[in-house]
Amino acid sequence: MDATDRRMLTALQRDGRLSVTDLAAEIGLSQTPCARRLSRLEADGVIEGYSARIDQGRVGLPVSIFIWVELERQAKDAIDAFERAVRGFDRVMECHLMTGSRDILMRVVAADLADFDRFLEEKLMRVPGIRSTRSSFALRTMVKRQVLPVG
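Below the sequence we write its predicted structure tokens.
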């Protein structure tokens, strides 16, 4: 990946709806080489896809909850089983395998406390192999970046 690829990625992170024509003009390439580079970045998996950023509060999911999960066992099969289960929960926005005393850190969205309680009772607490959980509610987001510093 060279400097031109990095400029392309920066421009697309700012505005994923750029046409190839506009992207080429912004980074100083003609359309055909720009389109070739774009196709290569997509094929190589550098660009994973395109999507709209949605304000979670405006769609009725204003609450973010961070949940630390400790598993009963840290064996690969137990971690894989947990991962398969939570992949099916649409409220789980992020789920990370962590180092330290807790195994998993998840970010979940909810409409309110009752909605979160339903998620816990009907989804998360039914996943086998969980030893304990600890939840923290985000009061506000202080920094949220969508643009990786690829430049």
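The chain has five helices and four strands.
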